[in-house]
Design goal:
Elements (H helix, E strand, L loop, with lengths): L9 E2 L6 E2 L2 H6 L1 E2 L6 E2 L2 H6 L3 E2 L5 E2 L17
Antiparallel strand pairs: 1-2, 3-4, 5-6
């Protein structure tokens, strides 16, 4: 069971994956706004993402994700 969503944690309403931040959530979505798709778990792993102990996907803190304007994720 996942920890409750609080702070910037979110869940993707399309694929059901949980993310540690909106930034990580946004990074797993691809395509034009009217034809967006989710990256698969294998895609995420190949890009350096991984689930933490609570099952929330995150990218290691290596500075490779650029800061973006906060856009809340939709569940």
């Amino acid at each position: 069971m996942k920890s409750k969503l609080s702070g910037d944690r979110c869940r993707c309403g399309s694929c059901g994956l949980y993310f540690t931040s909106t930034k990580n959530f946004e990074a797993h979505r691809r395509g034009a706004p009217d034809a967006r798709r989710c990256l698969t778990a294998d895609d995420l792993l190949s890009r350096g993402y991984g689930p933490n102990a609570a099952g929330f996907w995150r990218r290691p803190k290596d500075g490779s994700l650029k800061s973006r304007r906060h856009i809340p994720c939709l569940s």
